[in-house]
Write a structure and sequence with these properties.
Blueprint lengths: L13 E4 L2 H16 L5 H14 L3 H11 L6 E7 L2 E10 L6 E9 L8 H15 L4 E7 L3 H9 L3 E11 L14 E4 L5 H11 L19 H9 L3 E8 L3 H4 L5 E9 L5 E7 L8 H12 L6 E6 L3 H9 L3 E12 L2
Parallel strand pairs: 4-5, 10-11
Antiparallel strand pairs: 1-2, 2-3, 3-4, 5-12, 6-11, 6-12, 7-8, 8-9, 9-10
Helix pairs in contact: 1-2
Length: 335
């Protein structure tokens, strides 16, 4: 238990707005307890940073409070019992001036569950979002967490999509070449708008949870290009074009695309988009081209796939990807 979660001078039982100066350590401990097995390296690093900040001495507490008040996820609620944080929820806008709000880190200590704490935390959070002019709240939850899903449904959340995280271990051998009747090549700079239109048609909920589709997903801004250069990251986009353009029937003839973010801290990241009429015809060829381009690498390759796409799951398994966490995206309209 950290020092911050032992502060009792102003503690009282029940629901409280988050005060990171007092609650940060308790929140970090609770998230680690409830989600520690699922955290990636970045998440574990963030927990350690939160715990370190919570141990700051009195002389640093004012500075800490000023710094934390400008950080994301500084809004939300905790549930306190005898000076100890036993429940937490965080919220923030999806983007500056956005009316979509993200809800995350919903956690209740195992010894305190089935007391209505999560329901109280979520109701208070949705009221907060409404008071800030929010039009909707979105969250993600493990697809096998039936208790949480029932709670969110009770509050008006509905399923948007369900995605499975797949990981191809480092040092996996490059797959054999996969021929295709389609033209598969690196995307030209001028095709970014067609790729964005393809994404809007097949993955309108966004490429990443909590982030709406945007042009910079396919055409990095100057700032993003500088950041990529300084961090030694690269980005490539592969496209598949029907040899009979009139048959493509999609955005500017693009039948599919595969984006590859090279050099991310947790491994290379892939994003696959395929028009419905071409599903089952292009996934393997595109993935093979990208994996052969990446070559023999010591770090993993990661991709998220719709969980109901059995054909893609089979292809990913054949290419040495291993299935991992399955997350359901949910949305609640507030107007």
């Amino acid at each position: 238990m950290t020092a911050a979660s032992l502060f009792k001078s102003t503690a009282r039982n029940g629901l409280q707005p988050v005060d990171l100066g007092r609650h940060l350590g308790g929140i970090a401990d609770l998230i680690e307890l409830c989600f520690g097995a699922e955290l990636d390296a970045g998440g574990r690093g963030l927990i350690r940073e939160m715990q370190m900040l919570s141990r700051a001495g009195p002389a640093l507490r004012l500075v800490q409070g000023l710094l934390l008040s400008h950080q994301p996820w500084n809004l939300g609620y905790v549930w306190v019992e005898d000076g100890r944080v036993v429940g937490t929820v965080s919220t923030q806008r999806a983007a500056p001036r956005s009316t979509t709000w993200l809800v995350a880190n919903v956690a209740v200590h195992p010894d305190q569950r089935r007391r209505g704490i999560a329901l109280a935390l979520m109701r208070a959070t949705l009221d907060l979002v409404r008071s800030q002019g929010g039009s909707e709240a979105i969250l993600q939850v493990d697809d096998d967490n039936l208790g949480a899903i029932l709670l969110y449904r009770r509050l008006g959340f509905g399923r948007v999509t369900t995605r499975t995280a797949w990981v191809r271990p480092g040092h996996a051998p490059a797959p054999a070449f996969q021929p295709s009747p389609f033209e598969i090549r690196l995307r030209s700079d001028g095709e970014w708008a067609a790729q964005l239109a393809l994404a809007a048609s097949v993955q309108p909920e966004g490429l990443v949870w909590g982030q709406a589709l945007r042009p910079s997903d396919f055409r990095p801004s100057m700032r993003q290009q500088v950041e990529q250069f300084l961090s030694a990251r690269q980005e490539e986009h592969w496209v598949a074009v029907d040899p009979q353009p009139a048959a493509a029937g999609g955005p500017n003839g693009l039948a599919a695309s595969l984006s590859v973010q090279i050099g991310a801290p947790d491994g290379d990241r892939l994003t696959l988009l395929v028009q419905p009429k071409y599903r089952g015809q292009l996934e393997r060829a595109l993935l093979v081209r990208a994996l052969r381009r990446l070559g023999h690498r010591p770090w993993p390759a990661r991709i998220e796939a719709h969980s109901d796409d059995g054909a893609l799951a089979q292809t990913l398994g054949d290419l040495s990807f291993q299935s991992g966490r399955v997350l359901r995206w949910m949305r609640c309209g507030l107007r």
